């Protein structure tokens, strides 16, 4: 039963993240939403891996790898946002039609 | 040590080495190492050719515990094509991205990023493990995004960020599918998934992974990030981004649909994929037609050319019974992937030469440049022949195979799009060719080293040779191909 | 009882996530995001995944949080720290989010319970006692090797965001710390303690919990505190020792794998008798690279602007 609670929480986190990703223009917020989606997926995965007789260690190892990969991507994205803001003064993407 | 291990590790090892080398040793080491990797790729092709697919259980642990790698004919062909493109790009970049031309920062950063991209590509081509593929395409995406941002202009940064958002969203969708696949079957291995006990969640898993990979492959309507990203990067980087990077995510799609879960192919899903491909061919072609800068024309052409790849889905699949035309369609799409890679890299490298020669890639400024840079003009024209799909190029072989299977399958609308896409390509490539070969140069061209000029010519010639000698790649692609590629999905 | 606890915990996790998405100011959203990560780490502990709990607390909440806070500070100085919060509910986005959540929710109930790979049987040959470490450094070492290179790729990408004129400047913005202030004292006495804890985590990871990534993160945090307190000077990208530090982990890992292939095994094969020492060597090298790379990812590209102003 607890596993179901965690898995559904994970699903809800993914939903929240997807909403924020599509609805929020500020790029730092979008980066946080990516992390919400990622960690929501991991929570779902962890709950799925704990259903058997013994807890499966493979999902745990994959999740640790995933957390590090997510941090790497976040760091590059944050760096891009800061660099963009320094050149344009905005931390949001210009409209589609303004790009060359 | 096996050729497979060398193509897998040498790019990464060289990337690490380059970070420790003094500036003057960097380029010679990269070039020497690139030559070695090309040789190893050749050895791998030969090994596959003579002995069939080469497999490796990493660490000696067989799936489902460990990760399996496998070089079939398709992977070997992509590794070879990528090695040729990478080697050519390295040769061109040694002239183009020198510290005194582009600054110390870019003159340093391009090399390790290029090598990391190479390592990621080979890792993805070879891997049989869904999660390992996830890590591989993340490495690929991060290196690619960094290459897009390399010039540091506000436009390049915005393009890189938009690319990053699509790439990350695509990764997460793919990851969601991987989680469901492991959750249902306790394995991530493509071969073991092929013999799984079907679960109700499989369709959702495949749909999520497919959506994520489409965003990374820039299929319409997920293509909006591609043109500014590919046109905004320095030309050697553009060549890698356009010629190679989308092929990695496309290959994973092929592995999923033809090898891991061929039982899930439904007519409607296959139709949707190909319809998006058809729209991409037309829409990308139309937009390429109205661009004023050469690099943007080439970038929009990538949107169109990637569209053809998706005709594989309805043509090599359908109603489950044996279909004689499936094999042709499967091989045709792979020919398209290979020939587009060679020709597109050649084109972006010619654009780099023009920018170095006159400081601009606006069509108006390119007038008459074929007179002062004849080799480059010839290279562009040869690459254009491949992209238009004219004989005897590799692009022609690709479209011929796709077209004959479209008629054999009675699915003539795809043949119509193939023909229409060829006409559009002829139209949008006619404009730069007409400008290049026009009388009276408008801008005086700075001299360009002959070796640099020769590089895109060799790539473009290879894209033609792929058609002239099509029997060899044709036979290579058949080695170890999955049964659905032969008999239809 | 435990169900009630889990329900309450999940409510807190969701509440913090909701506040992150809906929070008014970006700064508040970041604070809620860090809180979210800490609640989530407790959730992982409740699931019995202590290695993940440690990784989530250290990397997901801690380091990502510092990264976001630092970025927010820099954006605020450029007057780009905040955007007007979007008014009302974005209906298409809400539908997409709800659709995704419902699809995954449905999948949970439709998911069969499969047979999973038999780790217990292979564990004695892995060289370590912690099954998670065995997966990360032996059974699926190729993942972990690629992942360490992903970190390096991100660092290179971040460095490339420097302006050409700043390339030879020290890394990161300048941190102002009052001499004798809390941070400086912190920066003096925290590093030795953190160093011991970080090294312990790597050592213990072989058989209990922890590992190179968790230990490396603690060491990175130590380095960051020392940097922000101006106890150590930020290096330049050209600093040779720095280059060696970011490269040594993946390089040792790759060489170990190639050595195995050279002796006739498959790539990355660790013979059971040598597995433990080889894994410890790889982990030690990885820890150095992870710690340095993570700290450098947070402080960002070389930047002269903060110094002159």
Descriptive account of the structure:
The complex is a heterotrimer of chains A (100), B (489) and C (309). Chain A has three helices and no strands. Chain A is mainly alpha-helical. The model of chain A is unreliable at 96-100 (pLDDT under 50). Helix content of chain B is 75%, strand content 2%. Chain B is built from 23 helices and two strands. With 309 residues, chain C is mainly alpha-helical. Chain C is 71% helix and 0% strand. The longest helix of chain C has 28 residues, at 50-77. Chain C is globular and about 60 Å long. At the A-C interface, helix 1, helix 2 and helix 3 of A face helix 1, helix 2, helix 3, helix 4 and helix 6 of C.
Termini Cα gap of chain C: 57 Å
| Count of extended strands of chain C | 0
Strand content of chain B: under 5%
Strand content of chain C: under 5%
Arithmetic mean pLDDT of chain B: 95
What ranges of chain B have pLDDT less than 50 throughout 5 or more consecutive residues? Answer: none
Q: What structural class results from the helix and strand content of chain C?
A: mainly alpha
Rg of chain B: 21 Å
Shape of chain B: globular
- The strands making up the biggest β-sheet of chain B line up spatially as 1-2
User: Could you tell me the number of beta strands of chain B?
Assistant: 2
Oligomer: heterotrimer
Question: Approximately how much helix is present in the residues of chain C?
Answer: over 70%
Structural class call of chain B reads: mainly alpha
Q: Mind summarizing the main beta sheet of chain B?
A: 2 strands, antiparallel
- What order do the helices and strands of chain C follow? HHHHHHHHHHHH
Tally the helices of chain C: what do you get? 12
Most extensive chain-chain interface: A-C, 77 and 91 residues
The gist of it:
The complex is a heterotrimer of chains A (about 100), B (about 500) and C (about 300). With about 100 residues, chain A is mainly alpha-helical.
């Amino acid at each position: 039963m607890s596993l179901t609670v965690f898995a559904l929480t994970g699903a809800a986190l993914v939903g929240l993240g997807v909403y924020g990703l599509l609805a929020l223009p500020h790029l730092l917020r979008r980066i946080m939403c990516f992390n919400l989606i990622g960690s929501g997926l991991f929570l779902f995965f962890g709950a799925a891996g704990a259903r058997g007789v013994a807890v499966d260690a493979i999902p745990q190892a994959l999740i640790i790898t995933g957390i590090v990969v997510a941090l790497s991507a976040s760091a590059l994205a944050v760096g891009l946002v800061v660099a963009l803001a320094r050149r344009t003064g905005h931390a949001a993407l210009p409209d589609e039609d303004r790009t060359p | 040590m096996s050729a497979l291990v060398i193509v897998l590790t040498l790019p990464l090892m060289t990337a690490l080495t380059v970070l420790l080398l003094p500036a003057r040793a960097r380029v010679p080491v990269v070039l020497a190492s690139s030559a070695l990797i090309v040789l190893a790729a050749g050895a791998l092709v030969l090994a596959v050719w003579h002995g069939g697919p080469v497999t490796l259980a990493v660490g000696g642990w067989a799936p489902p515990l460990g990760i399996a790698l496998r070089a079939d004919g398709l992977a070997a062909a992509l590794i070879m094509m990528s090695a040729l493109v990478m080697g050519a790009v390295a040769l061109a970049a040694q002239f183009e991205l020198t510290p005194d031309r582009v600054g110390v920062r870019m003159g340093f950063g391009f090399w390790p990023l290029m090598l990391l991209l190479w390592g990621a590509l080979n890792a993805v081509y070879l891997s049989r493990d869904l999660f390992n593929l996830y890590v591989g395409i993340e490495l690929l995406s991060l290196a690619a995004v960094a290459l897009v941002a390399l010039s540091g202009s506000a436009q390049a940064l915005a393009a890189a960020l938009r690319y990053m958002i699509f790439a990350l969203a695509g990764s997460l969708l793919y990851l969601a599918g991987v989680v469901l696949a492991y959750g249902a079957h306790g394995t991530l291995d493509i071969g073991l998934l092929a013999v799984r006990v079907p679960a109700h969640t499989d369709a959702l898993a495949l749909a999520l992974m497919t959506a994520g990979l489409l965003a990374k492959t820039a299929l319409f309507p997920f293509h909006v990030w591609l043109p500014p990203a590919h046109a905004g990067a320095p030309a050697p980087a553009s060549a890698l981004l356009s010629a190679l990077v989308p092929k990695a995510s496309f290959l994973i799609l092929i592995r999923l649909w033809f090898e891991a879960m061929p039982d899930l192919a439904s007519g409607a899903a296959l139709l949707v994929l190909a319809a998006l491909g058809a729209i991409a061919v037309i829409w990308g072609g139309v937009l390429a037609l109205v661009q004023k800068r050469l690099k943007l024309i080439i970038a929009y052409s990538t949107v169109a050319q990637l569209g053809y790849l998706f005709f594989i889905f309805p043509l090599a699949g359908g109603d489950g019974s044996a279909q004689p035309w499936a094999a042709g369609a499967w091989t045709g799409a792979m020919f398209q992937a290979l020939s587009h890679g060679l020709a597109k890299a050649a084109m972006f490298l010619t654009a780099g030469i023009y920018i170095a020669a006159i400081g601009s890639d606006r069509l108006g400024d390119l007038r008459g440049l074929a007179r002062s840079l004849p080799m480059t003009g010839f290279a562009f024209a040869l690459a254009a022949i491949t992209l238009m799909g004219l004989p005897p190029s590799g692009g022609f072989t690709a479209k011929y195979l796709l077209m004959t299977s479209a008629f054999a399958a009675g699915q003539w609308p795809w043949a119509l799009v193939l023909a229409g896409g060829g006409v559009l390509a002829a139209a949008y490539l006619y404009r730069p060719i007409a400008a290049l070969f026009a009388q009276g140069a408008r801008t005086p061209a700075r001299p360009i080293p002959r070796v640099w000029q020769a590089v895109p010519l060799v790539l473009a010639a290879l894209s033609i040779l792929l058609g002239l000698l099509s029997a060899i790649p044709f036979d290579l692609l058949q080695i170890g191909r999955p049964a659905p590629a032969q008999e239809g999905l | 009882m435990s169900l009630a606890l889990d329900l309450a915990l999940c409510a807190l996790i969701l509440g913090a996530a909701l506040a992150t998405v809906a929070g008014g100011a970006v700064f508040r959203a970041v604070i809620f995001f860090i809180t979210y990560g800490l609640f989530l780490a407790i959730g992982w502990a409740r699931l019995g995944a202590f290695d993940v709990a440690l990784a989530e607390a250290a990397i997901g909440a801690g380091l990502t949080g510092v990264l976001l806070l630092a970025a927010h500070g820099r954006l605020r100085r450029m007057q780009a720290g905040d955007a007007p919060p979007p008014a009302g509910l974005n209906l298409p986005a809400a539908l997409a989010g709800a659709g995704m959540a419902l699809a995954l929710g449905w999948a949970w109930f439709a998911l069969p319970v499969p047979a999973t790979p038999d780790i217990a049987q292979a564990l004695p040959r892995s060289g370590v006692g912690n099954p998670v470490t065995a997966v990360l450094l032996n059974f699926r070492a190729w993942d972990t090797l690629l992942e360490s290179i992903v970190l390096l790729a991100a660092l290179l990408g971040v460095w490339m965001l420097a302006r050409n004129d700043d390339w030879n400047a020290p890394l990161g913005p300048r941190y102002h710390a009052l001499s004798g202030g809390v941070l400086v004292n912190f920066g003096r006495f925290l590093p030795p303690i953190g160093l011991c804890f970080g090294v312990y985590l790597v050592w213990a990871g072989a058989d209990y919990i922890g590992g190179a990534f968790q230990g490396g993160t603690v060491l990175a945090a130590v380095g960051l505190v020392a940097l922000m307190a101006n106890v150590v000077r930020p290096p330049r990208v050209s600093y040779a020792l720095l280059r060696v530090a970011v490269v040594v982990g993946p390089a040792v890992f790759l060489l170990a794998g190639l050595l195995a292939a050279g002796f006739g095994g498959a790539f990355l094969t660790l013979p059971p008798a040598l597995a433990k020492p080889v894994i410890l060597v790889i982990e030690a090298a990885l820890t150095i690279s992870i710690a340095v790379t993570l700290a450098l990812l947070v402080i960002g590209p070389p930047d002269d602007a903060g110094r002159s102003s």
